[in-house]
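INFO worker-7 received task bundle
INFO bundle size: 2
INFO processing item 0
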Amino acid sequence: MSSRPDLHLQLEQGLAALDLALPAEAIGRLLDYQALLERWNSAYNLTAVRDPAGMVTRHLLDSLAILPYVEGASLADLGTGPGLPGIPLAIAAPGRDVLLVDSNGKKVRFLREAIRSLKLEGVRAVQSRVEDVQGQFNCITARAFASLADMLTLGGHLLAPDGTWLAMKGRSADDELHGIPAGFGLRGRHALQVPGLAAERQVLVLGRT
């Protein structure tokens, strides 16, 4: 098992590799979130990743790799699960209104406890199907939640007219691009080098046309 100092060093080195400078208290709060997730995971099975060092790589650093592409005053994280990438993004760049959306009750209970115990201001969790959520957001994040076609069909109404949709994907998602619904288009794609993760990662940046 990795000790907290080990995880702190791993996270610091990972952030340096990503060239991210976070607020002074962010690393401690990110590790508080990881510890809370680890504790709840043993009872509620919120994530398949059990190892603390693996959580730092696969959850914290993987989420934070898209931070340079997040913009605007409000963010909705769809199919957030235990808060990924929404909670790491909220800790790393506070001051944004963040809505965490998941249909799974036990995951939303965890999210509400995380928001309360980590004192995450401006962050809310809602148990809902994506298509039933109301409102419009400057930025929408979705991590392995569905195909691009399904994501945008179910959640496209949530994207503000000039908003940015960040779809986190693994290997090439070329076969999904033809399924993008009318009214939306691909603005860019960026390969993500997640420190410690051998798997291919990329973020597709979409918007209204």
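INFO item 0 finished
INFO processing item 1
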Amino acid sequence: MKGASGLAPRLFAALGRFHDARPWDHNAHYHRAILRRLPRRFGPALDVGCGSGDLARLLAGRAQSVTGTDTDPGIVAKARAATPEAVPVAFTTADALDAEAAPGPYAAVTCVAVLHHLPLTETLASFRARLAPGGTLVVVGLYREETRADRAVSLLAVVAHALVAWWKHPRGGRAARPAAMTARTRPATTSLAEIRRTAARELPGVRVRRRLFWRYVLEWRRP
């Protein structure tokens, strides 16, 4: 039993070394899923918590124009530097709830791995207010594990994460961390059930679906 009790820490340490050598961005994994939920062509778009600007630049391939906002001036500067002048994206340093900095209305609003840092009800209401009629909101967010189903999906995600990491970096080594993975993170504190209840109250007709890699996708179209 003594040997078994020491197995879990060693296993987690080995997994940590494996993932450190093969980093990949969970959030970027869902960028294409976001695009699938948006029209082929649409008007102005807002990406809240734009980070290094990867999603904003993808949106620019379909949108009339894109505004990317983030609270970190340093990452906003990196996003600007990485964006060609011909790409219709404007990056600005602003709080997610600062409607004056990015008032809209927008045909699309996106937000990836940011909502768990913010007051849920107020933020969803702010997104709703800035959407144009017929506009689409797509959020990829994190939730707090609470149920057996949460933990089962989390265990599956650990296995899937390792497989994807192996596929992306079969030789291992020390792969460079994507710029989007340098931002500070913190654990989610709101359960998926509470997110669904709040979203249904603020966004009638919303769809919130659990996804792999500790994420959910929220989709809503403003009437």
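INFO item 1 finished
INFO post-check item 1: The chain is about 40% helix and 20% strand.
INFO post-check item 1: The longest strand covers residues 131-141.
INFO worker-7 idle
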